[in-house]
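User: Second chain of the day. Same drill as before.
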Amino acid sequence: MLATLLLSMGATAQGIDFLRQSEIVLGGGTMNYIGDLNNQSAFSTLHGAAGMGLRTRLDNRWAVRVEAAYGSISCEKDYIVRRNLSFKSKIFEVAVLAEFNFRPFGPGATESAWTPYLFGGIGVFHYNPMAQYTDNDGNAQWIALQPLHTEGQGTSVYPERRPYGLVQICMPFGVGVKVRFNKTFSLTAEYGFRKTWTDYLDDVSTTYVDRALLETEVLEGAMAARMADRSGEVESGYVNTPGIKRGDDALKDWYAFMRVSIGVNLETLLGWTRSKRCKL
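Assistant: Same format as last time:
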């Protein structure tokens, strides 16, 4: 009986300490893509993005964060006109991150109210590259590119080119600054890269293939041929012969996330919730 009571008290104390050291983090900012179609510029095309998560302080130097993020990446037009390639994709990411504070950081009187920090971890993300196609009647529609096997993935001529998956692993890392206003609220601003192990965020990686091969061996062959080589839309005829580089498979694609977030202490947040319930 006594042992059960002590275990219960210990579990309760640990729970209270977890709530006191944890905060809900909500933020927004921009997402950007770095790959074959943007000339490796880190700020070429920015789109809105948002994220939310749970941060737990292990001590005044280290914290762990679990989060989900959502945003968009794109490249509207390639700078090489004869390629005429473009895409857009939604990104949904779930990650576990470790944070290291350069200064002792926390609500205590002996701790700093602000600090720069580093973060890094591992994540999983979903993407789905799409491109806009306009038919002869002027009707525009967005076409998912992965099912079209635009670089001959899985065909008899290119059996070594496997169709790429739409769920991939990423490695987030970056820098930021934290500011604590009081025991309840904190503010963070950070910029982080996502290293990926795919070269198909933009559906571009290797070489152009024979249009006839796509038309005969891909399920939606006619559309695959149109979306694989779009030079005919801006040139007098298709100018990209099979074997010409369409992308650079030596470099994997990346994306980046820049945001500002507000943190709310979990113990305080639950206290507010309980007090409102009591009033009701």
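Residues 155 and 217 are 6 Å apart (CA to CA).

User: Great, on to the next one.
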